[in-house]
Design brief:
Number of strands: 6
Number of domains: 1
Strand content: 25-35%
Largest sheet: 6 strands, antiparallel
Radius of gyration: 14 Å
Oligomer: single chain
Order of helices and strands: EEEHEEEHH
């Protein structure tokens, strides 16, 4: 089974210790700020269980989201709900509209990275080497 990979911003969690319950492959500090990006892996057979746990762990006061992908699928996790879409930007309308109503800046609703190549470039690693 192909795993889902995604980004959770450490500061988005109501309890930072929650990150220790996730399969965090790597951490990376945002060079332009104070965010810490967590590269998280989820087995596809546990996807919705894990996404629901993440949804409940997200701080709703600052309107954060996390997103995960596998192949052509993207799943966006907001504190209020989970939206499924594809890598085709035309399918992102509902997620973008929801994010905008929460006050998330449009430029932060690009759902990057959402390909293996983007993950590998962002974290300077090879997912194939992770097993």
């Amino acid at each position: 089974m192909i795993p889902f990979y995604g980004i959770v911003i450490e500061q988005s969690l109501t309890d930072p210790a929650f990150a220790e319950t996730l399969d965090v492959v790597q951490r990376k500090r945002d060079p332009n700020g104070s965010w810490v990006f967590l590269l998280v892996r989820i087995a596809s057979d546990r996807l919705f269980t894990e996404l629901e746990r993440i949804r409940q762990a997200l701080a709703g006061d600052q309107h954060w989201y996390a997103h995960f992908f596998a192949g052509e699928k993207i799943v966006v996790v907001f504190p209020e709900g989970i939206i499924s879409m594809t890598t085709d930007a035309a399918s992102w309308e509902a997620a973008i509209a929801h994010g905008l109503t929460l006050g998330i800046p449009r430029e932060q609703l690009d759902f990057q990275p959402h390909t293996v190549e983007q993950i590998e470039e962002m974290f300077s690693l090879s997912l194939a080497d992770l097993g």
